[in-house]
Prior knowledge:
With 185 residues, the protein is α+β, with helices and mostly antiparallel strands. It folds into 2 domains: 8-64, no CATH class; 76-184, Mitogen Ypm (Jelly Rolls, Sandwich), CATH 2.60.120. It is built from 3 helices and 9 strands; from the N terminus they run αααβββββββββ. The longest helix has 28 residues, at 10-37. The radius of gyration is 26 Å and the shape is elongated.
Amino acid sequence: xxxxxxxxxxxxxxxxxxAAAALAAVVLVTVILPAEYGIDPLGSGKLLGLDKIxxxxxxxxxxxxxxxPADTGADTVPGRTDEITINIAPDQxxxxxxxxxxxxKLEHSWAxxxxxxxxxxxxxxxxxxxxxFESFTLSTASDVSGVFYAPFEGSHxxxxxxxxxxxxxxxxxxxxQYEILGLKQ
Length: 185
C-alpha cells in the first residue's frame, strides 16, 4: 500500500467538519438547550422530557443558595433552638435524628473535645420502606457547622462513630425548623 491511499483530501476534511458542526448544532438545539437552560425552540425538550431537568436544576440551585422552594409547608413549622449533649462510648455508633419538611432550614454545629468522630449526615424520606437514605456529608472530624435545607420530608440527622479508645461528649447546637426525634442506637 502506498501512503497516497491513506490521505484525506481537503474537500473530504471540509465535508467531515461541516457534518460534525451540523450534528453539534442539532444536539445543542434539541437536547442541551432544553435540558440545561429550559430553552426549547423546537419543542423537542418537552417531547423527550428534557425540560423537566432544567426545572429540577433551578429548584436545586435555589435550595442550595438558601431560598426554600415555594409551597413546601416548611414555613408552618415554628423555628426553635436547641443545645444537646450526647455521650458516645469507645467503638460505639449512634444516630441523632430530626424530622424536617422540604425546604426547612437548619443551622447546625457539633463538636467534641480531645478526639474525632466518623460521621454521616444524611436523610431518609418519609414513608420510604426500601431502606433508602441520602448522605449529604461523610467525613471524620472533631467539629462541623453549616446550614442545611431539607430536600424532602423525612428524618435528617447524623450517624456518629467513636473509633477511639476513650468516651467522647458531643455538643450539638441546632437552630431552625425541625422536630426532634432524638437518639437511635
